[in-house]
Design a protein that fits this description.
Layout (H helix, E strand, L loop, with lengths): L1 H18 L3 E7 L10 E5 L2 H6 L8 E2 L5 E4 L8 E6 L2 E2 L15 E7 L2
């Protein structure tokens, strides 16, 4: 009975680790730390694509009332983020993520000025 329980526990742990999606939640803030609703967030897979503003990973998303967007089912790698709302953007600020952790909800804050 103990062997069956151990096998079942290991199977569940392996299934959870293997099949959970890799997501990225981005929170957009202004220079005083307030959430920015309605900002356009574009995610790029390479620095060249980011610099040339071409080949985004998915469609551009708009932030909700908490300044958040979530990109889903991503590869576990580094991404480049461009955020814009009116005259505000993150040019000259943080634009690169760390390598995402596979099977996790990764989180990043971006400040636009």
């Amino acid at each position: 009975m103990k062997q069956i329980t151990l096998l079942l526990t290991l199977s569940i742990a392996l299934f959870s680790f293997t099949f959970l999606p890799t997501n990225l939640k981005i929170t957009v803030l202004d220079d005083v730390g307030s959430y920015v609703e309605g900002a356009e967030v574009t995610l790029y897979g390479t620095e060249d694509d980011y610099r040339n503003e071409e080949n985004p990973v998915s469609e551009t998303l708009n932030t909700n009332e908490k300044g958040q967007v979530t990109f889903k089912k991503l590869e576990a790698k580094v991404y480049y983020i461009y955020v814009e709302k009116g005259d505000l953007n993150n040019d000259g600020g943080a634009a690169q993520t760390n390598a995402l952790i596979e099977g996790k909800l990764n989180k990043v804050n971006i400040i636009i000025e």
